[in-house]
C-alpha cells in the first residue's frame, strides 16, 4: 500500500476494536488520516507499538520533530490537534526538557505517596455510594458513570491541585471537549484554546491570591523561584495535563470494568468468589478497553524501518494501545474476549519507557477501592441498557461509555 491510500480513523471511535482489526490486516504499520485530514502512521500490533515507544529515534516534541507542525496554521481543520501538540508539558517534550518537567510532578505520585491518599479515596467512595443508593432506592435507573466513576477521580485530583468547587464543572467540561475528537472544526479548536487560558489561567490566578497546601501552589512556587525549571507556559500546560489525565482516564477505567463485569455474569461470579482478583480485572479492562485507545502524537526523528515499511523522518505516529491489547499474535485467538483469569499484566495501556504514566498507582488505588465497594454493596447490580443502547464516548483517543445506566436491585 502507498501512503496515498490513507485510512481515515473514525473521529467518533464508534467501534475501536473493529477498526483495529481492519488496520492490522493491512500490515504492522499503516498510513492513516486523523480527523481534519492530519496524516499519521498507526502501528497495529503489540510488538511494533512497544518497539516504537521505546525507540529513542521516536520523539514526542512536535516543535523539534514534526515536519508538518509549521503548517497547522494554514490548515484550519488541523487546529484541534493543538490541544495535544500545541501544549508544552512532559507529554509533548523530548530528552532533557521531558526529564525536567516530569521531575516536578512525578515524585508526588509514587506508590508510597499514593498509598497515603487511600483513606481519602475510601471516604469519597463511601459518600458517593451512599448517594447512589439513595438515588436508586425505589428501583430507579441510576448512572454509575455520573454517580461514581466520574466524581471519584475528579474530586480527588481537584483536591490534590486545590481546584475550588466553583471551578470544577468548567474544568470537567474543558477536558471532555479536548477528548472529544468528533468535531475538528476551527471554531471548536478556538473555543478549546480560549477555555484552556480561562479555566487553568483562572486557577493559577486564584492560587496566587489564595495559596494552599496543594500541588498548584507548589508548582507556582517553583515557577516564581526558578523560572528555568518551569516557565509560565509550562505551568499552565502541566496543570492541564495532570488534572486532565488525572481524572478522565480513571473515569473510563472504572466505567469500562463495571460494564465488562455486568455483561459477563461468569466473570463477575469468579471475582465475587475470589477465584479472580480485582487487580486482574483492572489489568484485563486496561488490556481490552484501555482508557486511552490511541494517543496523538509521536514523531520519527530519523527514517524508521518497520518491517518492509519506511516511516520517513518528520512523520507523525499515533500510539495505538487498543490495537496492542487486541493483538492475537500476542494475546492469542481469544484476544477480543474479556477474561480476567488470563492475568495479562503486560499490557501497554499505562505506556512504557520514559513517558510511562505517572498516575498508574493512583488510578489503581481508585479502581481497587471503587469496584469492590460498588459490587460488594449491591449484589444484584445489573445493567439497565442493552448493548445497542450503550454509547461510546465520541473519541478515537478516549475509550469509554458516555452513560452506564444500572439498577441496584433485581
Ligand atoms: C486508567 C488510568 C490511566 C491510564 C489508562 C493512563 C494512561 C497513560 C498513558 C498510556 C500514558 C503514556 C503516554 C505516552 O507514552 O505518550 C500516560 C502518561 C501520563 N499519565 Fe496517565 N493514565 C491514567 C491515569 C493517570 C492519572 C490518575 C494521572 C495523574 C496523576 C496520570 C498522569 C499522567 C501523566 C502526567 C503522564 C505523562 C508522563 C510523561 O509523559 O512522562 N495518568 N498515561
Provide a descriptive summary of the structure in words:
There is one protein chain. The protein is mostly helical. The chain has one domain: Cytochrome p450 (Orthogonal Bundle). Helices cover 50% and strands 10% of the residues. It contains 18 helices and eleven strands. The strands form four sheets. A three-stranded mixed β-sheet has the order 1-2-3. The chain has a three-stranded antiparallel β-sheet with strand order 4-6-9, covered by helices on one side. Strand 2 and strand 3 form a beta hairpin. The radius of gyration is 21 Å and the shape is globular. 45% of the residues are buried. The model has no long low-confidence stretch (mean pLDDT 96). Protoporphyrin IX containing FE binds next to helix 13 and helix 18.
Number of spatially distinct domains: 1
CATH architecture: Orthogonal Bundle
Ligand roster: protoporphyrin IX containing FE
What multimeric state do the chains show? single chain
Name of the top-level CATH class: Mainly Alpha
Radius of gyration: 21 Å
Helix content: 40-55%
In percent terms, what proportion of residues is strand?
5-15%
Tell me the structural class: mainly alpha
Order of helices and strands: EHEEHEHHHHHEHHHHHHHHEEEEHHHEE
Amino acid at each position: 500500500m502507498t501512503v496515498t491510500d490513507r485510512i481515515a480513523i473514525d473521529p467518533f471511535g464508534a467501534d475501536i476494536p473493529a477498526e483495529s482489526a481492519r488496520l492490522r490486516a493491512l500490515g504492522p504499520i499503516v498510513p492513516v488520516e486523523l480527523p481534519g485530514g492530519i496524516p499519521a502512521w498507526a502501528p497495529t500490533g503489540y510488538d511494533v507499538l512497544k518497539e516504537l515507544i521505546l525507540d529513542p529515534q521516536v520523539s514526542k516534541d512536535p516543535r523539534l520533530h514534526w515536519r508538518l507542525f509549521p503548517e497547522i496554521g494554514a490548515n484550519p481543520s488541523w487546529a484541534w490537534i493543538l490541544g495535544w501538540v500545541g501544549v508544552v508539558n512532559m507529554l509533548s517534550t523530548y530528552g532533557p526538557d521531558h526529564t525536567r518537567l516530569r521531575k516536578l510532578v512525578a515524585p508526588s505520585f509514587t506508590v508510597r505517596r499514593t498509598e497515603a491518599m487511600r483513606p481519602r479515596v475510601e471516604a469519597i467512595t463511601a459518600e458517593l455510594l451512599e448517594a447512589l443508593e439513595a438515588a436508586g432506592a425505589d428501583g430507579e435507573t441510576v448512572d454509575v458513570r455520573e454517580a461514581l466513576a466520574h466524581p471519584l477521580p475528579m474530586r480527588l485530583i481537584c483536591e490534590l491541585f486545590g481546584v475550588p468547587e466553583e471551578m470544577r464543572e468548567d474544568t470537567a467540561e474543558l477536558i471532555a471537549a479536548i477528548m472529544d475528537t468528533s468535531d475538528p472544526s476551527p471554531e471548536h479548536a478556538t473555543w478549546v484554546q480560549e477555555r484552556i487560558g480561562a479555566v487553568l489561567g483562572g486557577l493559577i490566578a486564584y492560587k496566587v491570591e489564595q495559596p494552599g497546601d496543594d500541588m498548584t501552589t507548589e508548582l507556582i512556587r517553583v515557577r516564581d523561584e526558578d523560572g528555568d525549571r518551569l516557565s509560565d507556559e509550562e505551568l499552565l500546560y502541566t496543570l492541564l495535563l495532570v488534572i486532565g489525565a488525572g481524572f478522565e482516564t480513571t473515569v473510563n477505567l472504572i466505567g469500562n470494568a463495571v460494564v465488562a463485569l455486568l455483561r459477563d455474569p461468569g466473570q463477575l461470579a469468579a471475582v465475587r468468589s475470589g477465584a479472580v482478583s480485582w487487580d486482574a480485572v483492572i489489568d484485563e479492562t486496561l488490556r481490552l478497553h484501555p482508557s486511552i485507545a490511541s494517543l496523538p502524537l509521536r514523531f520519527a526523528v530519523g527514517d524508521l524501518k518497520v518491517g518492509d515499511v519506511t516511516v520517513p523522518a518528520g512523520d507523525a505516529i499515533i500510539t495505538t494501545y487498543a490495537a496492542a491489547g487486541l493483538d492475537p499474535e500476542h494475546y492469542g485467538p481469544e484476544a477480543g474476549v474479556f477474561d480476567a483469569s488470563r492475568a495479562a499484566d503486560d499490557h501497554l495501556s499505562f505506556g512504557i519507557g520514559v513517558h510511562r504514566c505517572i498516575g498508574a498507582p493512583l488510578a489503581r488505588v481508585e479502581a481497587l477501592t471503587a469496584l469492590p465497594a460498588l459490587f460488594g454493596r449491591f449484589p444484584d447490580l445489573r445493567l439497565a441498557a442493552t448493548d445497542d443502547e450503550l454509547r461510546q464516548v465520541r473519541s478515537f483517543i478516549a475509550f469509554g461509555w458516555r452513560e452506564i445506566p444500572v439498577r441496584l436491585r433485581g
